[in-house]
# Entry
Amino acid sequence: MALKIKSYANFDLIIACGGGYLLQPGKLPKLDRWLRIHDTLLFAYDFYLAKAFNKPYILYNQSIGPFFRRSDFMAYIRFMRDAKVVLCRESLTYERLKEVGVSNIKQVADIAFHLAPKHSNLLTKYTKKMDGTKIGLTVRKWLDSNRQDFYENALAEFIRNVLSQDDKAQFYFMPQVHYPVGDDDDSIVSLRIRDKLPTNLSKSVHLITEDLHPAELKYTIGQMDYFVGTRMHSNIFALSMGIKTIAIAYEPKTVGIMKDLGLSRYVIPMEESDGDNLLSLFNELHEDVNYLSVLSTNLEYIKQLAFCDLKVFAT
# Structure
């Protein structure tokens, strides 16, 4: 750790990588709040070190907030104001920072919109029935035990409901994160959902077990007719491949990205998902003849925003 800290003296520029880690949506215990030792501030160590070594720094592709208390938010403001620039990857973050007087901000978009897909024949391994409606899904563990069960039951019910309307439909769970050591493995959640279905339905549900390169995952998602995604970047992959998508939002970053694409109607909070409202939204998605034209128009603008020359801010 000491070596890592000393290495900052040799850097010309510090870039805090993109993500949605600067938030505090829940109430902190009093001791944590008084001592400022909560996890979110620990994520800000890059800013501390950059300031300590008097090095310029950039907050790259950030989704920031929400914060339960304004005081929690204000603890970060001095780091943001001292940055060369805070690059906001969606408009909710941009507006949140603008509202509290942070001026060194620029709205961009997630660079994942530009990831080039890599061809893969993976789907043929899982089914020969490629003529039915193909629906891709990503899921994740995120909520407390009771609400997580509700979410997983909702997705199982959604699959049952769709298959009752279209018995030729095929579902593909596409795990994006495989990290069992950290208790964050999408394949485990996918398997639990599939196991809730009777055999006559589960045969139409395929769990992709490979840990795919992101470019292969993007290509495979692009072979779907529809996509229902919980992982935000899986939704970005689907949308950038022109696939009609419902986004299940576990954090506001998903809401912001869908808003910027003009598709706010097709976002549902993770904790509010149930089989009936998912089916209703899916049927609306199916009938929406304007979805792809809205997506296409806004996607071009979003892709332009995603290109950002950091050299401009490095001087």
